Amino acid sequence: xxxxxxxxxxxxxxxxxxxxxxxxxxxxxxxxxxxxxxxxxxxxxxxxxxxxxxxxxxxxxxxxxxxxxxxxxxxxxxxxxxxxxxxxxxxxxxxxxxxxxxxxxxxxxxxxxxxxxxxxxxxxxxxxxxxxxxxxxxxxxxxxxxxxxxxxxxxxxxxxxxxxxxxxxxxxxxxxxxxxxxxxxxxxxxxxxxxxxxxxxxxxxxxxxxxxxxxxxxxxxxxxxxxxxxxxxxxxxxxxxxxxxxxxxxxxxxxxxxxxxxxxxxxxxxxxxxxxxxxxxxxxxxxxxxxxxxxxxxxxxxxxxxxxxxxxxxxxxxxxxxxxxxxxxxxxxxxxxxxxxxxxxxxxxxxxxxxxxxxxxxxxxxxxxxxxxxxxxxxxxxxxxxxxxxxxxxxxxxxxxxxxxxxxxxxxxxxxxxxxxxxxxxxxxxxxxxxxxxxxxxxxxxxxxxxxxxxxxxxxxxxxxxxxxxxxxxxxxxxxxxxxxxxxxxxxxxxxx
Length: 497
Ligand code: HEC
Ligand code: HEC
Prior knowledge:
By secondary structure, the chain is mostly helical. The protein contains 17 helices and 5 strands. The site of one heme C has 25 residues, from helix 5 and helix 9.
Protein backbone atom coordinates (compact mmCIF):
# COMPACT_ATOMS: atom_id res chain seq x y z
CA UNK A 1 0.00 0.00 0.00
CA UNK A 2 2.70 2.36 1.05
CA UNK A 3 4.73 1.66 -2.09
CA UNK A 4 1.71 2.07 -4.33
CA UNK A 5 1.00 5.41 -2.77
CA UNK A 6 4.61 6.36 -3.09
CA UNK A 7 4.67 5.31 -6.75
CA UNK A 8 1.50 7.15 -7.64
CA UNK A 9 2.87 10.14 -5.77
CA UNK A 10 5.91 10.16 -7.98
CA UNK A 11 3.78 9.80 -11.07
CA UNK A 12 1.50 12.63 -9.97
CA UNK A 13 4.35 15.00 -9.14
CA UNK A 14 5.97 14.08 -12.45
CA UNK A 15 2.79 14.80 -14.35
CA UNK A 16 2.00 17.96 -12.49
CA UNK A 17 5.51 19.31 -12.51
CA UNK A 18 6.30 18.54 -16.12
CA UNK A 19 3.24 20.36 -17.34
CA UNK A 20 4.01 23.36 -15.19
CA UNK A 21 7.68 23.22 -16.23
CA UNK A 22 6.72 23.43 -19.88
CA UNK A 23 4.68 26.50 -19.19
CA UNK A 24 7.59 28.38 -17.58
CA UNK A 25 9.28 28.54 -20.94
CA UNK A 26 6.11 28.92 -22.97
CA UNK A 27 4.78 32.04 -21.32
CA UNK A 28 7.92 34.02 -20.56
CA UNK A 29 8.85 37.25 -22.29
CA UNK A 30 11.29 37.42 -25.16
CA UNK A 31 13.76 39.21 -22.92
CA UNK A 32 13.58 36.37 -20.39
CA UNK A 33 14.22 33.88 -23.20
CA UNK A 34 17.21 35.87 -24.46
CA UNK A 35 18.67 36.18 -20.97
CA UNK A 36 18.32 32.49 -20.26
CA UNK A 37 19.65 31.49 -23.65
CA UNK A 38 22.75 33.61 -23.13
CA UNK A 39 23.32 31.77 -19.85
CA UNK A 40 23.10 28.45 -21.71
CA UNK A 41 25.38 29.70 -24.46
CA UNK A 42 28.10 30.64 -22.00
CA UNK A 43 27.51 27.62 -19.75
CA UNK A 44 27.97 25.23 -22.69
CA UNK A 45 30.77 27.36 -24.22
CA UNK A 46 28.98 27.64 -27.56
CA UNK A 47 30.80 29.81 -30.09
CA UNK A 48 28.76 29.58 -33.30
CA UNK A 49 32.10 29.23 -35.06
CA UNK A 50 32.90 25.53 -35.32
CA UNK A 51 35.35 26.17 -38.17
CA UNK A 52 37.51 28.53 -36.17
CA UNK A 53 40.34 26.28 -35.06
CA UNK A 54 40.18 23.92 -38.00
CA UNK A 55 42.07 23.81 -41.25
CA UNK A 56 39.57 22.80 -43.88
CA UNK A 57 40.38 22.93 -47.58
CA UNK A 58 38.65 25.32 -49.97
CA UNK A 59 36.52 23.73 -52.68
CA UNK A 60 38.76 25.64 -55.10
CA UNK A 61 41.89 23.77 -54.02
CA UNK A 62 43.21 21.42 -56.73
CA UNK A 63 42.74 18.27 -54.66
CA UNK A 64 39.15 19.10 -53.68
CA UNK A 65 38.36 19.88 -57.33
CA UNK A 66 39.80 16.57 -58.49
CA UNK A 67 38.02 14.76 -55.66
CA UNK A 68 34.77 16.28 -56.87
CA UNK A 69 35.20 14.84 -60.36
CA UNK A 70 35.96 11.41 -58.92
CA UNK A 71 33.02 11.69 -56.51
CA UNK A 72 30.72 12.18 -59.52
CA UNK A 73 32.21 9.37 -61.62
CA UNK A 74 31.00 5.78 -61.79
CA UNK A 75 34.53 4.58 -62.52
CA UNK A 76 35.08 3.46 -58.95
CA UNK A 77 32.23 0.96 -58.98
CA UNK A 78 33.02 -2.54 -60.18
CA UNK A 79 30.47 -2.50 -62.98
CA UNK A 80 30.60 1.22 -63.74
CA UNK A 81 27.10 1.98 -62.46
CA UNK A 82 27.46 3.76 -59.10
CA UNK A 83 29.30 6.85 -57.90
CA UNK A 84 29.67 8.41 -54.47
CA UNK A 85 27.27 11.10 -55.63
CA UNK A 86 24.60 8.46 -56.31
CA UNK A 87 23.99 8.52 -52.56
CA UNK A 88 25.59 11.81 -51.45
CA UNK A 89 24.35 14.57 -53.75
CA UNK A 90 24.98 18.20 -52.75
CA UNK A 91 21.49 19.28 -53.82
CA UNK A 92 20.06 16.55 -51.57
CA UNK A 93 21.86 17.87 -48.51
CA UNK A 94 24.88 15.63 -49.12
CA UNK A 95 22.59 12.61 -48.85
CA UNK A 96 20.05 10.80 -51.06
CA UNK A 97 16.58 11.69 -49.75
CA UNK A 98 15.84 7.99 -49.26
CA UNK A 99 15.28 6.05 -46.04
CA UNK A 100 17.68 3.35 -47.16
CA UNK A 101 19.94 3.80 -50.13
CA UNK A 102 20.27 1.85 -53.33
CA UNK A 103 23.71 1.40 -54.83
CA UNK A 104 24.62 -0.97 -57.66
CA UNK A 105 22.10 -2.38 -60.14
CA UNK A 106 19.65 0.51 -59.94
CA UNK A 107 16.97 0.46 -62.64
CA UNK A 108 18.20 3.87 -63.75
CA UNK A 109 21.67 4.47 -62.29
CA UNK A 110 21.43 8.24 -62.82
CA UNK A 111 18.10 8.60 -61.03
CA UNK A 112 18.58 9.82 -57.47
CA UNK A 113 16.21 10.14 -54.55
CA UNK A 114 12.63 8.85 -54.58
CA UNK A 115 12.23 6.83 -57.79
CA UNK A 116 15.64 5.17 -57.50
CA UNK A 117 14.93 1.45 -57.40
CA UNK A 118 16.73 -1.85 -57.46
CA UNK A 119 16.50 -3.62 -60.85
CA UNK A 120 14.18 -6.66 -60.59
CA UNK A 121 16.61 -8.87 -62.55
CA UNK A 122 19.57 -8.04 -60.29
CA UNK A 123 21.25 -10.36 -57.78
CA UNK A 124 19.61 -10.28 -54.33
CA UNK A 125 16.52 -8.44 -55.56
CA UNK A 126 13.78 -8.55 -52.93
CA UNK A 127 11.64 -5.65 -54.06
CA UNK A 128 13.11 -3.15 -51.60
CA UNK A 129 16.25 -1.06 -51.14
CA UNK A 130 19.56 -2.88 -50.96
CA UNK A 131 21.72 -1.13 -48.37
CA UNK A 132 21.34 -1.74 -44.63
CA UNK A 133 21.22 1.87 -43.46
CA UNK A 134 20.35 5.51 -44.12
CA UNK A 135 23.05 7.75 -45.60
CA UNK A 136 24.64 10.27 -43.28
CA UNK A 137 25.42 13.52 -45.08
CA UNK A 138 28.89 14.14 -46.48
CA UNK A 139 28.41 17.81 -45.48
CA UNK A 140 30.51 18.98 -42.53
CA UNK A 141 32.45 15.72 -42.52
CA UNK A 142 35.60 17.61 -41.54
CA UNK A 143 34.04 18.52 -38.19
CA UNK A 144 33.87 14.98 -36.84
CA UNK A 145 36.75 14.34 -34.46
CA UNK A 146 36.37 10.79 -33.27
CA UNK A 147 33.83 8.55 -35.00
CA UNK A 148 32.65 7.95 -38.54
CA UNK A 149 29.64 5.84 -39.60
CA UNK A 150 26.48 5.12 -37.61
CA UNK A 151 28.36 2.56 -35.52
CA UNK A 152 31.65 4.49 -35.37
CA UNK A 153 33.62 1.71 -37.00
CA UNK A 154 36.17 4.27 -38.17
CA UNK A 155 37.64 5.74 -35.05
CA UNK A 156 40.36 8.21 -34.03
CA UNK A 157 42.40 6.40 -31.42
CA UNK A 158 43.75 9.37 -29.48
CA UNK A 159 41.36 11.90 -27.96
CA UNK A 160 43.50 14.76 -29.28
CA UNK A 161 41.98 17.98 -30.55
CA UNK A 162 41.71 18.13 -34.30
CA UNK A 163 44.81 19.93 -35.49
CA UNK A 164 45.86 20.81 -39.01
CA UNK A 165 43.52 18.21 -40.41
CA UNK A 166 45.40 15.30 -38.83
CA UNK A 167 44.09 13.14 -36.00
CA UNK A 168 46.85 10.62 -35.35
CA UNK A 169 46.29 6.86 -35.50
CA UNK A 170 42.92 5.73 -36.85
CA UNK A 171 41.36 2.29 -36.56
CA UNK A 172 39.13 1.03 -39.36
CA UNK A 173 37.33 -2.19 -40.27
CA UNK A 174 40.55 -3.23 -42.06
CA UNK A 175 42.64 -3.14 -38.88
CA UNK A 176 39.88 -3.96 -36.41
CA UNK A 177 38.72 -1.79 -33.55
CA UNK A 178 41.51 -0.50 -31.32
CA UNK A 179 44.26 -1.30 -33.83
CA UNK A 180 45.77 1.46 -35.99
CA UNK A 181 45.28 1.10 -39.75
CA UNK A 182 48.53 2.17 -41.43
CA UNK A 183 46.72 2.93 -44.72
CA UNK A 184 43.99 5.08 -43.15
CA UNK A 185 45.55 8.38 -44.21
CA UNK A 186 45.84 11.69 -42.38
CA UNK A 187 42.32 12.07 -41.06
CA UNK A 188 38.93 10.43 -40.66
CA UNK A 189 37.67 11.68 -44.03
CA UNK A 190 40.58 10.15 -45.91
CA UNK A 191 40.17 6.94 -43.93
CA UNK A 192 36.47 6.72 -44.73
CA UNK A 193 36.87 7.33 -48.46
CA UNK A 194 38.53 3.93 -48.91
CA UNK A 195 35.49 1.95 -47.81
CA UNK A 196 32.45 2.66 -50.02
CA UNK A 197 33.96 0.79 -52.97
CA UNK A 198 34.20 -2.45 -51.00
CA UNK A 199 30.63 -3.63 -50.19
CA UNK A 200 28.94 -5.44 -53.07
CA UNK A 201 25.58 -3.64 -52.76
CA UNK A 202 27.19 -0.23 -52.42
CA UNK A 203 29.71 0.05 -55.29
CA UNK A 204 31.69 -3.16 -55.93
CA UNK A 205 28.85 -5.07 -57.53
CA UNK A 206 28.30 -8.81 -57.70
CA UNK A 207 30.79 -9.76 -60.39
CA UNK A 208 33.83 -7.47 -60.01
CA UNK A 209 36.71 -8.50 -57.71
CA UNK A 210 34.82 -11.15 -55.78
CA UNK A 211 36.70 -12.85 -52.91
CA UNK A 212 39.26 -10.04 -52.74
CA UNK A 213 40.39 -8.14 -49.67
CA UNK A 214 39.45 -4.47 -49.28
CA UNK A 215 43.02 -3.49 -50.11
CA UNK A 216 43.05 -5.65 -53.24
CA UNK A 217 39.81 -4.01 -54.39
CA UNK A 218 41.31 -0.54 -53.86
CA UNK A 219 44.44 -1.53 -55.76
CA UNK A 220 42.32 -2.78 -58.66
CA UNK A 221 40.34 0.48 -58.80
CA UNK A 222 43.58 2.50 -58.68
CA UNK A 223 44.92 0.39 -61.55
CA UNK A 224 41.70 1.05 -63.46
CA UNK A 225 42.15 4.82 -63.06
CA UNK A 226 45.74 4.50 -64.29
CA UNK A 227 44.34 2.74 -67.35
CA UNK A 228 46.04 -0.54 -66.50
CA UNK A 229 43.03 -2.73 -65.77
CA UNK A 230 40.83 -2.65 -68.83
CA UNK A 231 40.74 -0.45 -71.92
CA UNK A 232 38.78 2.76 -71.24
CA UNK A 233 37.47 4.85 -74.12
CA UNK A 234 38.25 8.12 -72.39
CA UNK A 235 40.68 8.42 -69.50
CA UNK A 236 41.89 11.80 -68.32
CA UNK A 237 42.63 10.68 -64.76
CA UNK A 238 46.42 10.36 -65.30
CA UNK A 239 46.67 13.99 -66.47
CA UNK A 240 44.30 15.28 -63.79
CA UNK A 241 46.07 13.52 -60.91
CA UNK A 242 49.49 14.67 -62.14
CA UNK A 243 48.15 18.23 -62.29
CA UNK A 244 46.48 18.17 -58.86
CA UNK A 245 49.63 16.78 -57.27
CA UNK A 246 51.80 19.10 -59.31
CA UNK A 247 53.99 16.19 -60.45
CA UNK A 248 53.79 16.36 -64.24
CA UNK A 249 56.43 13.70 -64.83
CA UNK A 250 55.89 11.32 -61.91
CA UNK A 251 55.34 7.63 -62.62
CA UNK A 252 51.59 7.00 -62.65
CA UNK A 253 51.46 4.74 -59.61
CA UNK A 254 53.07 7.52 -57.61
CA UNK A 255 50.14 9.89 -58.26
CA UNK A 256 47.23 7.44 -58.61
CA UNK A 257 47.10 5.01 -55.74
CA UNK A 258 45.06 4.09 -52.68
CA UNK A 259 46.47 7.02 -50.75
CA UNK A 260 45.80 9.73 -53.33
CA UNK A 261 42.33 8.45 -54.23
CA UNK A 262 41.29 8.55 -50.57
CA UNK A 263 42.92 11.91 -50.14
CA UNK A 264 41.20 13.73 -53.02
CA UNK A 265 37.78 12.31 -52.14
CA UNK A 266 38.37 13.22 -48.49
CA UNK A 267 39.45 16.75 -49.39
CA UNK A 268 36.32 17.29 -51.49
CA UNK A 269 34.14 16.18 -48.58
CA UNK A 270 36.12 18.24 -46.07
CA UNK A 271 35.56 21.28 -48.28
CA UNK A 272 31.80 20.86 -47.79
CA UNK A 273 31.61 23.06 -44.70
CA UNK A 274 28.10 24.50 -44.44
CA UNK A 275 28.04 26.22 -41.10
CA UNK A 276 26.34 29.57 -41.62
CA UNK A 277 22.98 29.50 -39.91
CA UNK A 278 20.65 31.68 -37.84
CA UNK A 279 21.34 29.85 -34.59
CA UNK A 280 25.06 30.57 -34.93
CA UNK A 281 24.26 34.21 -35.72
CA UNK A 282 22.19 34.31 -32.57
CA UNK A 283 25.04 32.81 -30.54
CA UNK A 284 27.35 35.44 -32.00
CA UNK A 285 25.06 38.19 -30.71
CA UNK A 286 22.28 38.86 -33.24
CA UNK A 287 19.27 38.54 -30.95
CA UNK A 288 16.89 39.10 -33.87
CA UNK A 289 18.19 36.06 -35.76
CA UNK A 290 15.61 33.72 -34.19
CA UNK A 291 11.83 33.91 -33.94
CA UNK A 292 10.05 33.56 -30.62
CA UNK A 293 9.18 29.89 -31.25
CA UNK A 294 12.78 29.15 -32.25
CA UNK A 295 14.06 30.75 -29.06
CA UNK A 296 11.65 28.68 -26.98
CA UNK A 297 12.76 25.59 -28.92
CA UNK A 298 16.41 26.41 -28.28
CA UNK A 299 15.83 26.87 -24.57
CA UNK A 300 13.89 23.61 -24.38
CA UNK A 301 16.76 21.92 -26.21
CA UNK A 302 19.41 23.17 -23.78
CA UNK A 303 17.44 23.14 -20.49
CA UNK A 304 17.07 20.27 -18.09
CA UNK A 305 13.74 18.71 -17.12
CA UNK A 306 13.16 20.74 -13.96
CA UNK A 307 13.62 23.93 -15.97
CA UNK A 308 11.02 22.91 -18.51
CA UNK A 309 13.43 21.55 -21.11
CA UNK A 310 14.28 18.17 -22.60
CA UNK A 311 18.04 18.25 -22.18
CA UNK A 312 18.60 17.30 -25.81
CA UNK A 313 22.07 18.75 -25.43
CA UNK A 314 23.09 15.87 -23.14
CA UNK A 315 23.66 13.92 -26.38
CA UNK A 316 23.42 16.59 -29.12
CA UNK A 317 26.20 18.59 -27.51
CA UNK A 318 28.20 21.67 -28.45
CA UNK A 319 28.28 23.73 -31.63
CA UNK A 320 27.95 20.63 -33.83
CA UNK A 321 25.17 19.23 -31.66
CA UNK A 322 26.68 15.80 -31.23
CA UNK A 323 28.75 14.13 -28.52
CA UNK A 324 30.01 11.68 -31.19
CA UNK A 325 28.83 9.07 -28.71
CA UNK A 326 26.40 6.18 -29.10
CA UNK A 327 22.92 5.86 -27.63
CA UNK A 328 20.01 3.50 -28.03
CA UNK A 329 16.85 5.46 -28.67
CA UNK A 330 15.11 2.45 -30.27
CA UNK A 331 14.32 3.89 -33.67
CA UNK A 332 12.09 1.32 -35.47
CA UNK A 333 14.29 -1.18 -37.32
CA UNK A 334 13.22 -1.39 -40.96
CA UNK A 335 14.91 -2.62 -44.13
CA UNK A 336 17.39 -5.44 -44.62
CA UNK A 337 19.42 -4.69 -41.50
CA UNK A 338 22.94 -5.85 -40.77
CA UNK A 339 22.30 -9.58 -40.38
CA UNK A 340 21.92 -9.39 -36.59
CA UNK A 341 19.47 -11.10 -34.23
CA UNK A 342 17.25 -14.15 -34.69
CA UNK A 343 15.57 -12.60 -37.71
CA UNK A 344 18.88 -11.88 -39.44
CA UNK A 345 17.52 -8.44 -40.34
CA UNK A 346 18.25 -6.59 -37.14
CA UNK A 347 21.01 -4.04 -36.58
CA UNK A 348 22.78 -4.05 -33.21
CA UNK A 349 24.55 -0.75 -33.98
CA UNK A 350 27.59 0.10 -31.88
CA UNK A 351 27.36 -3.29 -30.13
CA UNK A 352 28.61 -4.85 -33.37
CA UNK A 353 31.95 -3.16 -32.65
CA UNK A 354 32.26 -3.24 -28.86
CA UNK A 355 30.13 -6.19 -27.66
CA UNK A 356 29.14 -4.35 -24.48
CA UNK A 357 25.51 -4.22 -23.44
CA UNK A 358 25.50 -0.46 -23.03
CA UNK A 359 25.98 -0.27 -26.81
CA UNK A 360 23.20 -2.66 -27.84
CA UNK A 361 21.18 -0.89 -30.57
CA UNK A 362 23.14 2.32 -29.95
CA UNK A 363 23.86 4.56 -32.92
CA UNK A 364 26.06 7.61 -33.23
CA UNK A 365 24.36 10.86 -32.20
CA UNK A 366 23.83 12.73 -35.47
CA UNK A 367 24.94 16.34 -35.81
CA UNK A 368 21.84 18.49 -36.19
CA UNK A 369 23.40 21.19 -38.35
CA UNK A 370 21.42 21.32 -41.65
CA UNK A 371 19.22 18.49 -40.36
CA UNK A 372 16.24 19.98 -42.19
CA UNK A 373 17.93 19.03 -45.48
CA UNK A 374 18.49 15.34 -44.77
CA UNK A 375 15.17 13.64 -44.20
CA UNK A 376 14.38 10.78 -43.63
CA UNK A 377 15.79 10.43 -40.11
CA UNK A 378 17.38 7.78 -37.93
CA UNK A 379 20.06 5.24 -38.89
CA UNK A 380 17.56 3.53 -41.20
CA UNK A 381 15.43 6.51 -42.20
CA UNK A 382 12.44 5.19 -40.27
CA UNK A 383 10.96 8.67 -39.78
CA UNK A 384 10.18 10.98 -42.64
CA UNK A 385 9.74 14.16 -40.62
CA UNK A 386 11.54 16.06 -37.89
CA UNK A 387 8.33 15.99 -35.95
CA UNK A 388 8.22 12.19 -36.14
CA UNK A 389 11.77 11.60 -34.92
CA UNK A 390 11.44 14.19 -32.14
CA UNK A 391 8.15 12.72 -30.92
CA UNK A 392 9.86 9.35 -30.95
CA UNK A 393 12.59 10.56 -28.54
CA UNK A 394 9.90 11.67 -26.10
CA UNK A 395 8.42 8.22 -25.65
CA UNK A 396 9.90 5.44 -27.80
CA UNK A 397 7.44 2.79 -26.52
CA UNK A 398 4.46 4.91 -27.45
CA UNK A 399 5.99 5.99 -30.75
CA UNK A 400 6.69 2.38 -31.75
CA UNK A 401 3.17 1.32 -30.75
CA UNK A 402 1.79 3.90 -33.20
CA UNK A 403 4.48 3.51 -35.85
CA UNK A 404 3.80 3.10 -39.52
CA UNK A 405 6.36 3.89 -42.20
CA UNK A 406 5.65 7.25 -43.86
CA UNK A 407 8.84 7.67 -45.91
CA UNK A 408 9.51 7.84 -49.65
CA UNK A 409 10.06 4.09 -50.29
CA UNK A 410 6.74 2.29 -50.43
CA UNK A 411 8.51 -1.04 -51.01
CA UNK A 412 10.75 -0.96 -47.96
CA UNK A 413 11.25 -4.33 -46.20
CA UNK A 414 8.96 -4.27 -43.16
CA UNK A 415 8.56 -8.03 -42.52
CA UNK A 416 10.52 -8.17 -39.27
CA UNK A 417 10.29 -4.59 -38.10
CA UNK A 418 8.09 -5.28 -35.15
CA UNK A 419 10.10 -8.08 -33.54
CA UNK A 420 13.39 -6.36 -34.35
CA UNK A 421 12.25 -3.09 -32.82
CA UNK A 422 10.84 -4.82 -29.75
CA UNK A 423 14.36 -6.13 -29.02
CA UNK A 424 15.75 -2.60 -29.26
CA UNK A 425 13.02 -1.24 -26.99
CA UNK A 426 13.61 -3.82 -24.28
CA UNK A 427 17.35 -3.24 -24.47
CA UNK A 428 16.65 0.47 -24.07
CA UNK A 429 14.39 -0.17 -21.09
CA UNK A 430 17.07 -2.30 -19.40
CA UNK A 431 19.80 0.22 -20.21
CA UNK A 432 17.61 2.89 -18.65
CA UNK A 433 16.89 0.91 -15.50
CA UNK A 434 20.57 -0.04 -15.19
CA UNK A 435 21.55 3.62 -15.40
CA UNK A 436 23.33 3.12 -18.73
CA UNK A 437 21.13 5.48 -20.74
CA UNK A 438 21.00 9.23 -21.07
CA UNK A 439 17.52 9.08 -22.55
CA UNK A 440 15.15 9.97 -19.69
CA UNK A 441 11.98 8.99 -21.57
CA UNK A 442 9.06 9.05 -21.26
CA UNK A 443 8.92 12.83 -21.31
CA UNK A 444 5.56 14.50 -20.99
CA UNK A 445 5.25 17.11 -23.67
CA UNK A 446 2.82 19.45 -25.34
CA UNK A 447 2.25 20.16 -29.02
CA UNK A 448 3.91 23.55 -28.49
CA UNK A 449 7.04 21.71 -27.33
CA UNK A 450 7.21 19.69 -30.54
CA UNK A 451 6.52 22.73 -32.73
CA UNK A 452 9.15 24.79 -30.93
CA UNK A 453 11.80 22.09 -31.19
CA UNK A 454 11.08 21.58 -34.89
CA UNK A 455 11.27 25.34 -35.45
CA UNK A 456 14.62 25.42 -33.67
CA UNK A 457 15.90 22.55 -35.86
CA UNK A 458 15.00 24.60 -38.96
CA UNK A 459 17.12 27.51 -37.72
CA UNK A 460 20.19 25.27 -38.07
CA UNK A 461 20.09 25.28 -41.88
CA UNK A 462 22.80 26.97 -43.91
CA UNK A 463 20.90 28.78 -46.70
CA UNK A 464 23.63 27.72 -49.12
CA UNK A 465 22.45 24.11 -48.86
CA UNK A 466 19.11 25.21 -50.33
CA UNK A 467 20.50 27.06 -53.31
CA UNK A 468 21.78 25.37 -56.43
CA UNK A 469 23.60 28.55 -57.34
CA UNK A 470 25.42 28.68 -54.03
CA UNK A 471 26.25 24.97 -54.28
CA UNK A 472 27.61 25.34 -57.82
CA UNK A 473 31.30 25.10 -56.82
CA UNK A 474 30.59 21.65 -55.38
CA UNK A 475 28.75 20.50 -58.52
CA UNK A 476 30.43 19.52 -61.78
CA UNK A 477 30.08 21.63 -64.90
CA UNK A 478 28.55 20.12 -67.99
CA UNK A 479 31.87 19.91 -69.80
CA UNK A 480 33.56 18.11 -66.90
CA UNK A 481 33.55 14.38 -67.53
CA UNK A 482 37.08 12.95 -67.37
CA UNK A 483 36.09 9.38 -68.30
CA UNK A 484 32.65 9.57 -69.89
CA UNK A 485 31.29 7.93 -66.73
CA UNK A 486 29.93 10.80 -64.71
CA UNK A 487 26.48 10.69 -63.14
CA UNK A 488 24.08 13.06 -64.86
CA UNK A 489 21.74 13.08 -61.91
CA UNK A 490 18.00 13.34 -62.49
CA UNK A 491 15.06 13.20 -60.11
CA UNK A 492 12.05 10.91 -60.51
CA UNK A 493 10.57 13.28 -63.10
CA UNK A 494 13.83 13.24 -65.06
CA UNK A 495 14.60 16.83 -64.13
CA UNK A 496 18.36 17.42 -63.87
CA UNK A 497 19.64 17.94 -60.33
C1 HEC B 1 24.76 3.09 -52.26
C2 HEC B 1 24.83 4.34 -51.60
C3 HEC B 1 26.18 4.88 -51.23
C4 HEC B 1 27.25 5.12 -52.05
C5 HEC B 1 27.38 4.82 -53.52
C6 HEC B 1 28.25 5.75 -51.23
N1 HEC B 1 27.78 5.89 -49.96
FE1 HEC B 1 28.68 6.83 -48.44
N2 HEC B 1 27.34 6.05 -47.17
C7 HEC B 1 26.22 5.34 -47.50
C8 HEC B 1 25.61 4.80 -46.31
C9 HEC B 1 24.34 3.95 -46.25
C10 HEC B 1 26.41 5.18 -45.23
C11 HEC B 1 26.23 4.80 -43.76
C12 HEC B 1 26.94 3.48 -43.52
C13 HEC B 1 27.04 3.11 -42.06
O1 HEC B 1 27.10 4.00 -41.20
O2 HEC B 1 27.10 1.91 -41.77
C14 HEC B 1 27.48 6.00 -45.81
C15 HEC B 1 28.45 6.66 -45.06
C16 HEC B 1 29.36 7.53 -45.60
C17 HEC B 1 30.19 8.44 -44.85
C18 HEC B 1 30.18 8.59 -43.34
C19 HEC B 1 29.60 9.89 -42.90
C20 HEC B 1 29.48 9.97 -41.42
O3 HEC B 1 29.06 11.03 -40.93
O4 HEC B 1 29.79 9.01 -40.69
C21 HEC B 1 30.96 9.11 -45.75
C22 HEC B 1 31.97 10.19 -45.45
C23 HEC B 1 30.66 8.60 -47.06
N3 HEC B 1 29.66 7.66 -46.93
C24 HEC B 1 31.31 8.95 -48.23
C25 HEC B 1 31.19 8.24 -49.42
C26 HEC B 1 32.13 8.28 -50.53
C27 HEC B 1 33.41 9.06 -50.56
C28 HEC B 1 31.63 7.46 -51.48
C29 HEC B 1 32.25 7.07 -52.80
C30 HEC B 1 33.58 6.48 -52.75
C31 HEC B 1 30.36 6.94 -50.97
N4 HEC B 1 30.15 7.41 -49.71
C32 HEC B 1 29.50 6.13 -51.69
C33 HEC B 1 25.75 5.18 -48.79
C34 HEC B 1 26.54 5.33 -49.91
C1 HEC C 1 20.15 9.85 -25.27
C2 HEC C 1 20.78 10.71 -26.24
C3 HEC C 1 19.86 11.62 -27.02
C4 HEC C 1 19.03 12.62 -26.53
C5 HEC C 1 18.82 13.04 -25.10
C6 HEC C 1 18.42 13.21 -27.72
N1 HEC C 1 18.84 12.59 -28.85
FE1 HEC C 1 18.29 13.03 -30.73
N2 HEC C 1 19.26 11.40 -31.42
C7 HEC C 1 20.06 10.58 -30.66
C8 HEC C 1 20.51 9.47 -31.46
C9 HEC C 1 21.43 8.34 -31.00
C10 HEC C 1 19.95 9.64 -32.73
C11 HEC C 1 20.12 8.70 -33.93
C12 HEC C 1 19.30 7.45 -33.75
C13 HEC C 1 19.46 6.46 -34.87
O1 HEC C 1 20.30 6.68 -35.76
O2 HEC C 1 18.75 5.47 -34.92
C14 HEC C 1 19.19 10.88 -32.67
C15 HEC C 1 18.52 11.45 -33.75
C16 HEC C 1 17.95 12.71 -33.74
C17 HEC C 1 17.42 13.38 -34.89
C18 HEC C 1 17.48 12.86 -36.30
C19 HEC C 1 18.77 13.27 -36.97
C20 HEC C 1 19.13 12.48 -38.19
O3 HEC C 1 19.95 12.99 -38.97
O4 HEC C 1 18.66 11.37 -38.40
C21 HEC C 1 16.92 14.59 -34.46
C22 HEC C 1 16.27 15.65 -35.31
C23 HEC C 1 17.11 14.62 -33.04
N3 HEC C 1 17.75 13.49 -32.63
C24 HEC C 1 16.70 15.68 -32.23
C25 HEC C 1 16.68 15.60 -30.83
C26 HEC C 1 15.95 16.51 -29.97
C27 HEC C 1 15.15 17.70 -30.45
C28 HEC C 1 16.16 16.08 -28.70
C29 HEC C 1 15.55 16.62 -27.42
C30 HEC C 1 14.09 16.54 -27.40
C31 HEC C 1 17.02 14.92 -28.77
N4 HEC C 1 17.30 14.66 -30.07
C32 HEC C 1 17.50 14.25 -27.65
C33 HEC C 1 20.38 10.76 -29.32
C34 HEC C 1 19.72 11.62 -28.47
